[in-house]
Task: inverse folding
């Protein structure tokens, strides 16, 4: 056990985490020859294209120092704010962390929040300053920030360039010297933390674990403590580039277990595995059920593809346990699913994967957060979509989720960022200078206001320099109304939204104007209306495509022309009664970007 080192890499999105992992694998000889490629641990095409880590990975390396061989277990973590729970479980499985900071950008919000989690878990922090080969690197300024944040000495900060390999050997020395060996008793009852799982179509779900106490052998009878399910450990092993089976693993090790599990809900990140015959007293602390942050309806473009969509979402959920779904139907879109996502990035990724991996075109409705409706009879119901909101007469009040948002930026953009947050019904909590050129702003914001375009706006007003991290702080009462969109007097439920009363009129008017441009013209007039309850608050009209029926009248009495126009008018009226309006997919997307 004294030669094992378990560590993770903490970094903001795009600070060079995956490239640094590549260099570590290369120098330790874990990956060689044709297996060596950029972003080795990111095995999804989507991850490579976007340059982000979506699914965390783990890999074991061997490193020789002073004639001793050390086993280094790298537990990779995603860098985006949407996946913060997965990051927290990876941190719980380690004794140390590499804090990677981009020398050209300095410290970002996600780095700080993940660092605090690591410090709470008593991890040894090794500060690393990456991208030292870049012409616009600011090593001295960024060093000051790291010293202020971590409280380390300047000499402790390792300057590296993950792209060229400069300084990476020094990191490996620091991992061996500074990170402590895992503690744990190999003879105690078995206690293993599940920090990730993947789905294999032939073997079922493979759970990745870190053994805190005890020893596991192949074919042991084990149970998962949160689900109370029991299985045989058909295969256990360590995670090299390929899985490597072995007969026994004891405290301090990181590995995988295959037990032929077929349903993703039976393996939960953060769960504890123990022996059935000699179980441990209590599970490892920190386990939570992952709760979706926002909900949206996902419908197939072709109604015939409903069954294909169902099986695709089921398969996707096996690889992405944080995706939640249930059946839903809509008058406008037919049968589909109400899906729960961790955030907008997660929603985008799921859409993209459905398209790429399963070749299914889907329509996604306006995302909503989970509101709580308190009724006059004392009941409380969760409202996931606008059509689930009860009648106004039965509601006492509605509560919406609030978040604490931490934004790190340079002083020149503070005014614009404050205006953006206040426009989104936010209130300022705190303002702290991290250095002369960096400060952290903390806001209370309603979650419903930030799920659409907040992140894009934040990036554009700060020229990409501001970074955001947030966590749910609880529910507060809110004056919300249900805004319905009517086409020709028919309500389109998929376009309904729950919105704050102060913004309802302007939002309704903007949606009507947007839909007027997007809905194709028909042979008859289309009325687009926004309504709150029975009150119409905005209207636009799509003019009909019409033939000039009076063209054949030249000269003569005006009554002839009038008669032809009246006849046409009657025809249009009849057409309008039986005609139905097709709403294009672009209309659903446009509502997300209404500004």
Result:
């Amino acid at each position: 056990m004294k030669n094992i080192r378990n560590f993770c890499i903490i970094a903001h999105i795009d600070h060079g985490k995956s490239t640094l992992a590549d260099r570590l694998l290369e120098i330790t000889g874990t990956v060689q020859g044709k297996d060596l490629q950029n972003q080795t641990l990111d095995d999804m095409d989507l991850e490579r294209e976007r340059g982000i880590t979506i699914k965390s990975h783990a890999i074991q390396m061997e490193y020789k120092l002073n004639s001793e061989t050390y086993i280094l277990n790298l537990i990779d973590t995603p860098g985006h704010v949407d996946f913060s729970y997965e990051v927290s479980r990876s941190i719980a499985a380690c004794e140390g962390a590499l804090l990677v900071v981009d020398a050209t950008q300095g410290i970002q919000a996600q780095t700080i929040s993940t660092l605090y989690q690591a410090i709470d878990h008593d991890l040894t922090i090794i500060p690393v300053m990456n991208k030292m080969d870049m012409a616009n690197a600011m090593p001295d300024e960024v060093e000051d920030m790291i010293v202020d944040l971590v409280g380390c000495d300047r000499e402790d900060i390792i300057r590296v360039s993950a792209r060229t390999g400069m300084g990476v050997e020094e990191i490996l020395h620091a991992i061996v010297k500074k990170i402590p060996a895992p503690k744990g008793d190999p003879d105690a009852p078995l206690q293993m933390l599940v920090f990730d799982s993947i789905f294999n179509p032939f073997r079922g779900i493979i759970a990745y674990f870190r053994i805190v106490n005890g020893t596991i052998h192949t074919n042991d009878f084990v149970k998962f403590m949160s689900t109370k399910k029991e299985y045989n450990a058909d295969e256990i092993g360590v995670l090299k580039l390929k899985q490597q089976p072995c007969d026994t693993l004891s405290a301090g090790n990181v590995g995988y277990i295959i037990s032929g599990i077929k349903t993703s809900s039976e393996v939960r990140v953060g769960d504890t595995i123990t022996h059935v015959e000699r179980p441990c007293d209590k599970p490892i602390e920190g386990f939570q059920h992952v709760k979706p942050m926002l909900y949206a309806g996902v419908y197939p473009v072709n109604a015939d593809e409903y069954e294909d969509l169902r099986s695709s979402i089921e398969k996707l959920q096996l690889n992405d346990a944080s995706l939640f779904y249930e059946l839903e139907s809509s008058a406008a879109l037919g049968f589909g699913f109400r899906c729960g996502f961790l955030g907008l990035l997660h929603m985008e990724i799921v859409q993209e994967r459905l398209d790429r991996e399963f070749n299914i075109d889907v329509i996604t409705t306006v995302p909503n957060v989970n509101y709580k409706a308190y009724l006059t009879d004392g009941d409380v119901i969760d409202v996931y979509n606008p059509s689930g909101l009860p009648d106004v007469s039965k509601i006492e009040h509605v509560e919406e989720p609030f978040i604490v948002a931490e934004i790190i930026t340079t002083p020149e953009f503070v005014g614009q960022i404050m205006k953006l947050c206040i426009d989104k019904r936010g209130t300022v909590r705190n303002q702290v200078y991290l250095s002369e050129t960096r400060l952290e702003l903390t806001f209370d914001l309603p979650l419903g206001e930030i799920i659409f375009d907040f992140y894009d706006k934040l990036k554009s007003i700060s020229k990409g320099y501001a970074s955001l991290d947030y966590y749910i702080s609880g529910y507060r009462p809110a004056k919300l109304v249900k805004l319905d969109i009517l086409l020709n007097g028919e309500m389109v439920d998929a376009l309904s939204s729950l919105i704050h009363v102060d913004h309802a009129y302007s939002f309704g008017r903007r949606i009507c104007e947007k839909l007027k441009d997007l809905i194709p013209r028909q042979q008859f007039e289309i009325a687009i209306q926004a309504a709150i309850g029975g009150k119409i608050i905005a209207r636009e009209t799509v003019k009909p495509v019409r033939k000039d029926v009076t063209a054949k009248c030249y000269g003569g009495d005006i009554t002839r022309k009038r008669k032809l126009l009246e006849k046409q008018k009657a025809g249009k009226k009849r057409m309008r009664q039986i005609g139905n309006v097709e709403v294009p997919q672009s209309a659903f997307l446009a509502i997300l970007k209404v500004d």
Notes: The longest helix spans residues 558-578. The first strand starts at residue 4 and ends at 10. The chain has five domains: 4-178, 191-275, 294-367, 372-478, 482-592.
